[in-house]
């Protein structure tokens, strides 16, 4: 028997990190305002913290792009940093294949001191507050306690609804508001979960040649 189920091509839908695409709501408003007033604050080291998928990377890269920020990598020579410039690091506590911090305690300690010395600025993202970074170097731990922090919470229902509308629209898909509300009331609350779920719904609808209905999204939710 011929299988008439259509297998969709794995088309890429790039994620935009433009600041204009960042949706501000009660869950991230304080962090957004923290960054937009950062230039006048005189702060040399700041951190955006929040759970995975909350949108902190989007906010960091979008804001950083508008500010002309330079991304720092674990192997970058700190002596090459430019006086007065803005630098960013996404996921300061990322680990390498050996399970060690990619940005070591020594590196982070010297980074903290050096940006102050040259009147530069660095903003990083992390899943938790600096006091919980599991760093061991005493001099670094004491400095981490002074870092200015802005927290992003997981998206609320209002933000999730707007995000879903945008994600479906990006794929030229129109979804009934009742279906959107049904998804919001049942899905995991994170930006990442929203993106992955919209991708799943899109592929399923295309493969089964069906409209996006409550029945279809219910089936998708049950596969998660």
H and E string: HEHEEHEHEHHHH
Enter the CATH topology name of the largest domain: Rossmann fold
| Percentage of residues in DSSP E strands | 5-15%
Question: Could you give a short account of the major beta sheet?
Answer: 5 strands, parallel
Using the alpha-carbon principal axes, give the shape.
elongated
CA-atom Rg in angstroms: 21 Å
Instruction: Summarize the amount of helix as a percent range.
Output: 40-55%
Task: Give, in spatial order, the strands making up the sheet with the most strands.
Answer: 2-3-4-1-5
- Multimeric status of the protein: single chain
Q: Catalogue the unreliable spans.
A: 1-12
- Could you say which structural class the secondary elements and strand pairing correspond to? alpha/beta
| Overall average residue pLDDT | 89
Number of strands: 5
Summed up, the domain count is 2
CATH superfamily of the largest domain: P-loop containing nucleotide triphosphate hydrolases
If helices are DSSP runs of H or I spanning 4 or more residues, what is the number of helices? Answer: 8
Alpha-carbon distance between the two ends: 29 Å
What is the CATH class name of the largest domain? Answer: Alpha Beta
Level-2 CATH architecture of the largest domain: 3-Layer(aba) Sandwich
């Amino acid at each position: 028997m011929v299988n008439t189920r259509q297998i969709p091509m794995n088309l890429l839908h790039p994620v935009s990190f433009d600041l204009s695409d960042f949706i501000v709501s009660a869950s991230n408003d304080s962090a957004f305002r923290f960054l937009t007033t950062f230039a006048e604050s005189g702060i040399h080291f700041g951190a955006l913290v929040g759970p995975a998928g909350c949108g902190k990377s989007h906010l960091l890269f979008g804001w950083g792009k508008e500010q002309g920020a330079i991304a720092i990598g674990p192997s970058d020579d700190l002596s090459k940093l430019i006086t007065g410039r803005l630098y960013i690091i996404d996921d300061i506590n990322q680990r390498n294949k050996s399970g060690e911090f990619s940005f070591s305690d020594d590196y982070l300690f010297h980074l903290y001191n050096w940006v102050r010395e040259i009147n530069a600025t660095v903003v990083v993202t992390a899943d938790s507050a600096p006091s919980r970074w599991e760093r061991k170097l005493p001099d670094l731990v004491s400095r981490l306690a002074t870092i200015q922090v802005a927290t992003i919470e997981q998206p609320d229902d209002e933000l999730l609804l707007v995000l879903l509308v945008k994600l479906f629209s990006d794929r030229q898909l129109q979804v009934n508001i009742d279906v959107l509300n049904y998804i919001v009331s049942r899905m995991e609350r994170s930006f990442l979960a929203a993106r992955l779920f919209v991708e799943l719904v899109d592929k399923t609808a295309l493969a089964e040649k069906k409209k996006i209905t409550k029945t279809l999204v219910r089936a998708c939710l049950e596969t998660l």
